[in-house]
Amino acid sequence: MIHVDNLTKFYDSFCAVDGISLDIPKGEILGLLGPNGAGKTTTLKMLTGYFPPSAGTISIKDFNIQDHLLEIKKMIGYLPESSPFYKDLLVYDYLDYVAKIRGIPADERHTRIKYLSELCGLSHVMHKSIAELSKGLNQRVGLAHAMMRDPEILILDEPTQGLDPNQIVEIRNIIRKIGEEKTVIFSTHILSEAEATCDRIVIVNRGKIVADGQTEALKQAAGKEAAIQLTLANASFDAVEQTLKPIEGIESIKKMDQTDDGRLSVKLGCRSESDRREDIYKAIKATDWVLLEFYQEAKTLETIFRDLTRQINKEN
Amino acid sequence: MRQFTHILRKELKDFFVTPIAYIVITIFLIVTGWFFFSTFFLYDQASMRNFFNLLPLIFSFVIPAVTMRLLAEELSKGSYELLMTMPVTFGDIIIGKFLAGVVMTVAMLIPTLAYPISISFLGQLDWGPVIGGYLGAILLGGAFSAIGVFASSITHNQIVAFIVGAAICFTLTLVDKMLFFFPEAILNPVEYLGANFHFSNISKGIIDSRDLIYFISVIFIGLYGTYLILLQKE
Question: Which one of B7, B9, B10 makes the best mutation probe of the A interface by having the most chain A beta carbons within 10 Å?
Fold first, then answer.
């Protein structure tokens, strides 16, 4: 559906997007993740045809963005980062204007606007001017704007930014619903959001793709690594190391703290397909140590994201 | 319908839903009405000539005030981004905005039709120059609107857009009154540049192709300049 090849964008000499290549099939919900300034918005803006790339190609279906900009713009619905609308117009007038520009015939216009206002929960503010709306309602006007012509591709730049938790859930549900038939690309820096909504996650940092995979696959890869914290009484660090080291999957044992009354905290680094906690417990049970604390910090997407983006930032 | 008509209608809605249109029209009518009628009875002539003599100077302030927001506002608010991701071309945007300026000019001129009508009751009014004058006023409004749209495209700041637009229009209005500053060799080309010069020809009721070509070229240059600026913003 969407084929992006070696996409690059320079702002003067600053390279905002550096050789991104992506293939997005029809009906996929793709989350573009990355820290601030990673090039998410720039990538999305190039996909919408707002400005041309410095190098590389974008083609959607059989259309190349250089030669068929207008056709591509017709297929795409776009919600920009801050919803910049004409503040003086009424919500209805604004949507009516968008419907006209998007070429919806006069006799369907009213039903389409009505349908979208219900879908996005705007029915009760249609007669208000956009300047009066709250941030959340503004965002919904943007969503209605983006979906006006029932676009095949929906590009949303931080759709849940500035919304309250209830609204976030609502917007996510809307995205999920649209994503059943349409291709949705959205950017966010909130990981739980991407985890909850996306089929596929692409993490970008400094204009480059650092991770790309199905959400489930990424989560599983993350799940293999875990850190286990133990607090023991009546134990010495050497003895702990000797007893636990032979257990398969334990890669490191680190002493965290030892108090005067003999409490010892250690951190075990694990990498394993299956849960190792049972083996550890059995090994401890065989000794005369007293187990005070025992818990596992599973590695989540968040830790992957932090590792990937921080590592690279350090290198530079 | 072509895309530019939607943009034109949206701009007009913006003018007439907000107080902008009414304020501008009122100010225009007060200023022209005052300057025209304060000397009208002294001349004791049933003619609109003094009204049309005033127009270039007043237009060179009023029209940039109308057009200053057309593009600068979109650029500063970021709604330009939304506009550009919809299926419209630069041509649609520029023509739509330009025509909004022209329609506003016409809306300002319509109430002034009361002047020739009431004058025609006072004496023998020659309608030829009046019709020529209104035609010229629309052309002049078009030329200044094109300049205003151009000024609005070069900046995010509406005040800068107004000052630049007014400065260009003002120069074009006054340049043929400054001819004594110029060497004789370039007098004719400089005179030809003056909007006032061409406008006063038309408002005498003489419609000469040179004057029409002048206004059409100013409109074209203004709009093409806007196109180049927008192209460069990509």
Answer: B10
Contact flag A70-B77 (C-beta cutoff 8 Å): no
For residues A82 and A111, what is the distance between their CA atoms, to the nearest angstrom?
A: 27
Question: Quick check: B89 contacting A, CB < 8 Å?
Answer: yes
Chain A's closest residue to B92, CA to CA, is A101
Rounded Cα distance, B55 and B220, in Å: 22
Q: Does B3 touch chain A (CB under 8 A)?
A: yes
A272 three-state secondary structure: coil
Q: Which residues of B touch A99 (CB under 8 A)?
A: none
Assess: ipTM above 0.90. Answer: no
Q: Is B84 on the interface with A (CB under 8 A)?
A: yes
SS3 labels along B28-87: HHHHHHHHHHHHHHHHCCCCCHHHHHHHHHHHHHHHHHHHHHHHHHHHHHCHHHHHHCCC
pTM of the model: 0.82
**In this structure, how many other beta carbons lie within 10 angstroms of the beta carbon of residue A89?**
20
The candidate with the shortest Cα–Cα distance to A199, out of A43, A52, A60, A26, is A26
Which residue of chain B is at minimal alpha-carbon distance from A54? B234
Report CB contact under 8 Å: B86, A102: yes
> Cβ–Cβ contacts within 10 Å for residue B28, how many?
25
Please check whether residue B7 touches A, CB under 8 A. yes
The CA distance from B54 to the nearest CA of chain A, in Å, is 33
Nearest CA in chain B to A72: B87
Give the span between the Cα atoms of B200 and A153, in whole angstroms.
56
pLDDT 10s digit of each residue in chain A, 316 long? 888 888 888 888 888 888 888 888 888 888 888 888 788 888 888 888 888 888 888 888 888 888 888 888 888 888 888 777 788 888 999 999 999 988 888 898 999 999 988 888 888 989 988 888 888 888 888 888 888 888 888 898 888 877 778 878 888 888 888 888 888 998 887 777 788 888 888 888 888 888 888 877 777 776 667 778 888 888 888 888 888 888 877 777 888 888 877 788 888 877 766 777 888 888 888 888 888 888 877 666 777 777 777 755 555 5
